[in-house]
Structures are given as structure tokens and as C-alpha cells.
User: What shape does this take?
Amino acid sequence: MKFLALAGGVGGAKLALGLSRILPQSDLTIVVNTGDDEEFHGLHVSPDVDTVMYTLAGLSNPETGWGITGETFAALERLNAYGADTWFNLGDKDLATHIRRTDLLRQGKTLSEVTDSLRTALGVKHPIVPMSNDPVRTMLTTDLGELPMQTWFVRHRCEPAVSRIRFVGAEVSQPAPKFTRALQDSDVLVFCPSNPFVSVAPILAIPGVRDAIENFGGTRIAVSPIVGGQAIKGPAAKMMDELDIETSCVGVASQYKNLCDIFVLDDVDADRAGDIEALGMRAAVTNTMMFTDDNKVRLAKYICGLAA
Assistant: This one.
């Protein structure tokens, strides 16, 4: 079976790693959110793409889940000394990624081509595909005004209350060609345990994507990033509360109504299985925690078993 995984952030990267450990490169395509992409110091930064890429390359910082392990910040310190605004941490090795990405983009390469070049150079075998080669930017309406995703997430540490989310440029964007092919050719679609509002929703906002998933011919499986009413990592629970959506696995499942056949929830939330099934999808209960690589592989194998 061919798998298409939709991912963003640390949770998405963890399951993508697990799937990559048990599926050959010909049978797995990982499509990643680029709504968080931003320009810093004249460089194109793709935070979610890099998190997935570094994770699959075995480079990611195990303490944070993002960035590169053993990173140094000499360049950022020098930029700060020059008076640059350095609220967004970019390590020295990480900067090399962004310098190379920006250089290739300026040469006329698409973001898909650039991502292919970078992940291949890092030894990553499985395709990592940006959701679109066109710019789409996640903007959050907050009590401080409208903020780009990274400004809200990093600079303001998720503190401003969110009342609305929009995806600027999505209406005129197109899915990356490899994404379109994967939607047509895959037998299984997996929503990784990523934030449904700022990691998955930007992907769904690209014209034609939601319709293609609603009419997907294979099995569609989603994994909840909310366990016991809490986000495993990131601001999903806080956002749900502020957007007046039930902060639970059921609240997450409601975002995937008509897009999902099987919804995977953690053992802790087993008593909510009936509420999940009331939304029109099968509930599958297992341990969804991914603290180790073995955990990631275990969950990936469970998902493959559901698909089979």
C-alpha cells in the first residue's frame, strides 16, 4: 500500500519518522505544512519542513523536537551585536539550510525542488513535499492584532488570545505537483498528530485539497494530538479553548468530520470512543505517546495494521 502522511510540527515529524522506518521510500510521501514559512535576515525559513527533515535525518534536537542537536549560535550573537532583531532562534548549522534554500529559490528552483535537494543531501530517502510551491501564510487574529504564526508562536510565546485564523494566499495557491499525485495514487492517507488549526488546516485550505480528501478512494486515518484534554506539545489545547472548541480528542475529531474514516485516540481517552463514532468515524484506541523511536515505530505499525 502507498501512504500519504500530512504533517506539521514536532508531533507530525515523530509519526513521519515512525512511518519512514517501516515503509519503503516508494510507498510513503510526507506532505508538510508551509503556512509557518517566514523570512528572517533575508532568508527563507520553512520551520515545519525543516523539523520533519531534521527528524528523518537523525539531526533534530531531542530536547526541543526542533532545530539541530549540538547547535551553536555564534552567527545569531553577531547579528544581535550588529543591532538585528534576533527573537527567532537560528543556529549556525540551521542557518546553512536557510542560506542554501534561499540561494536555490533565487536561482528559480521551486520550493519542492529545493526541499528535494536539501533532504537528499541530508541522506533522507523518503520524499518530503511542501504542501505548495506558492506562498501561503498563516495569520492569527489576536488581542494584540493580527500576527504571523511565528511571531505569535515564538516572539509572543503563544500568549495573545486567538479569535480567528486565516491563510493568506491560499485561495490562489496550488498543491505541489507531488502532493497532487500522492492524493491520486495513495491507498492510505494519514493525518499525523499535528495541530489541526495551524499545521493541518493550511494544507486543507489549498484549493482542491479538501475535496480530494473527501473523495479519497482509500482509507483515511487521523491521530489525535490531544490526550486527556492536553496537547502533547505545542499550543493546540490553548487554541481550542480560545476558539470555543471542546479541548479533547473529540474536539479534534470534529475538525476531521467527512475527512477521516478511522480516528486514533490514546488509551487515556478510551471512554470518548463512542463520541468519536457519533461523528461518523471508527474509533481506534491505543497508546499514542511517542517518547522514543521505538514508540514512534510502534504507533506507525499500529496505523499500518488499521489500514490493512
Summary: The chain has a mean pLDDT of 97. The longest strand covers residues 162-168. The chain is about 40% helix and 20% strand.
